[in-house]
Design a protein that fits this description.
This protein is of the alpha+beta class and 581 residues long. Helices cover 35% and strands 17% of the residues. It starts with a helix and ends with a strand. The structure holds 6-diazenyl-5-OXO-L-norleucine (DON). 6-diazenyl-5-OXO-L-norleucine is lined by residues 391-393, 411, 413, 432, 435, 464-466, 484-486, 489. Pathway: Sulfur metabolism; glutathione metabolism.
Length: 581
């Protein structure tokens, strides 16, 4: 990271403004890069920046930026590299969402490359003989595997918005090199492989890649080579998406899914297409927010919750005070109740997006929030907007020197997905179809309830919580963020936005602050370590059940302030890196 003196002085003067006490709402030019009061400082750079969960992949993206690639090029190269270096979540065999901001036109576009159910999928396919959901079927069998979207998504993003100076093969070359010549196993990778060994060594194809003699996890410092994955990547580099969706790779994927009890065919793969969708937009205290539309629930509910919270003086309440946690939890509860009823694949159902994201509906919901008492979730029903812990998804953010930006969240669902690898391809297969509602009213792996709107159907996309998000100030890029964390993705991303806008925190402080989460059912506020005992008592006195559990999310964020970039990788998970130049 190079920081010239002049820019350092600009950054410092922006930071010093903080000491004067910045009144809300923040103006972008007053927003903090860092101040001498801060305990956590962001990474600062002038030109471009990449924040991802894995250091080697971040550096791949930064190199692409330095070579003249734009944010989309760098995001694609980082995404392919993560498929090699962060196999628990980075992927070719999964899917996700990419939000792209084009500085020249000011346009922000949302690319949906979420997995689809194969055409043969049936509504009751995850039920056992007793009519109840069979978790093995929806999580670890071939039936769990959705038609992957990642490669098609990256190809589409490159075709429409690649920078034009680097070839598609240029963007995949670093991943091929890493797969072929090997990566140095990090403590994070070794730990994840050890934790998942029971599940992953059941499939000989997976075991042969990630475990020595098919049994022993690689140790930190050892070299992991993935030659089959390198060969698959080479086909993709040479043939584009066809190298994955047609021919030998597609045949091997379909064969593996069928051998594991699923119904995916080569036709399902050949007919997969990503979809451009209009982002969900809203405003919060003068800032503009853009996030992922359905089949993600993220954008709708982030905007809905922000709309409700706008009625409350969050900044005066103070970070993680009983008052602010109370109103946040109440707003979250109401939004997740609506999620359970109204959200699903927009190509199959009508979703009242306008109602759910309208300020008037949010005001009506906010009026039902009492300051002195929690509303039991049993008393909250989806409104009327017409009038596990095996976590891995991964997010990365990129901003280039021209102000273009990418916010990308993609996943295999569980760590290493279904744990199945298509033999001979090195491609781990997702278990994304567990995100469908196997049976109305029965919670999925993240405790999320769904209904008709998210029932299984052939060619349908399962409802997601992944929420790649951007915030703008007067149309100028201000924040790029997102997170893994299953059902907690929405509330984690929301709190980055609140911490920056309401609490005036720099992005590193905003990232490190303890998080809370309420998802309607179970009726509890899940909190991270770090809340004061008297705050917990005050919340309990209002009727909240407080459950302290594991840390939530792993955000990768970049802010643009006064011409400078300030980024932060979440300290909650090891191995992440934000780097700029
Ligand atoms: O799309 C979704 O909402 C889930 N499949 C995401 C899973 C996830 O985030 C796992 N954990 N970090």
């Amino acid at each position: 990271m190079e920081l010239r003196l002049k820019s350092a002085l600009t950054a410092l003067s922006a930071a010093l403004l903080l000491f004067a006490g910045v009144a809300p709402p923040l103006a972008a030019e007053d927003a903090p890069i860092y101040s001498l009061k801060d305990r956590f400082s962001p990474v600062v750079a002038q030109n471009g920046m990449v924040a991802s969960q894995e250091a080697v992949a971040t550096r791949v993206g930064v190199e692409i930026l330095k070579k003249g690639g734009n944010a989309v090029d760098a995001a694609i190269a980082t995404g392919f590299a993560l498929a090699v270096t962060l196999p628990r979540a980075g992927n070719l065999g999964g899917g996700g969402f990419m939000l792209i901001h084009l500085n020249e036109t000011g346009e922000t576009r949302a690319l949906d490359y979420r997995e689809k159910a194969p055409a043969a999928a049936e509504r009751d396919m995850f039920l056992g003989p007793d009519g109840e959901p069979d978790k093995d079927k929806s999580r670890f069998s071939g039936l769990a595997v959705g038609v992957p979207g990642t490669v098609a998504g990256f190809a589409e993003a490159y075709e429409k918005h690649g920078g034009g100076t680097l070839t598609w093969a240029d963007l995949i070359a670093p991943a091929i090199d890493l797969a072929e010549n090997g990566i140095t196993v990090t403590p994070g990778l070794s730990g994840a492989l050890t934790a998942a060994a029971g599940r992953l060594t059941r499939d000989p194809a997976t075991a042969a890649i990630f475990y020595k003699h098919g049994l022993i996890p690689y140790l930190p410092g050892e070299i992991l080579r993935q030659p089959d994955l390198a060969a698959t990547l080479r086909l993709i580099a040479e043939q584009g998406a066809d190298g994955f969706y047609k021919g030998v790779t597609a045949e091997k994927i379909a064969a593996k899914v069928q051998a594991a009890g699923g119904g995916m065919t080569v036709d399902d793969l050949a007919s997969y297409e990503p979809v451009w969708r209009a982002p969900i937009t809203g405003t919060y205290r003068g800032f503009e927010v853009a996030s992922m539309p359905p089949p993600s629930s993220g954008g709708v509910h982030i905007v809905q919750i922000l709309n409700m919270l706008e009625s409350f003086p969050i900044r005066e309440f103070g970070l993680n005070s009983a008052d602010s946690i109370h109103v946040m939890a109440e707003a979250m509860r109401r939004a997740y109740a609506d999620r359970s009823k109204f959200l699903g694949d927009p190509d199959f159902i009508d979703i009242p997006v306008q109602g759910l994201t309208s300020a008037a509906y949010a005001r009506a919901l906010a009026e039902t929030i009492r300051m002195d008492a929690a509303t039991p979730s049993d008393d909250v029903r989806p409104g009327d907007p017409f009038p596990y812990e095996s976590n891995e998804t991964t997010h990365f953010s990129v901003v280039d020197k021209d102000g273009n930006a990418v916010s990308n969240t993609y996943t295999l669902n569980f760590s290493y997905g279904a744990g199945l690898t298509a033999d001979g391809t090195g491609v781990l297969l997702n278990n994304e179809l567990d995100d469908f509602s196997a049976k109305p009213g029965v919670p999925n792996a993240y405790g999320l309830i769904g209904g008709e709107a998210n029932a299984v159907e052939g060619n349908k996309r399962p409802l997601s919580s992944m929420s790649p998000t951007m915030v703008f100030r007067d149309g100028s890029l201000f924040l790029v963020t997102g997170s893994p964390g299953g059902s907690r993705i929405i509330t984690t991303t929301l709190q980055i936005v609140l911490n920056v806008i309401d609490h005036g925190m720099n992005i590193a402080e905003a990232t490190a602050a303890p998080r809370i989460h309420n998802q309607w059912l179970p009726d509890e506020i899940r909190v991270e370590e770090g809340l004061s005992p008297d705050t917990v008592r005050l919340l309990e006195a209002r009727g909240h059940k407080i459950e302290e559990k594991n840390a939530m999310g792993s955000t990768q964020s970049i802010m643009k302030i006064g011409g400078m970039l300030a980024g932060a990788s979440d300290p909650r998970r090891t191995g992440a890196l934000t780097e700029g130049y």
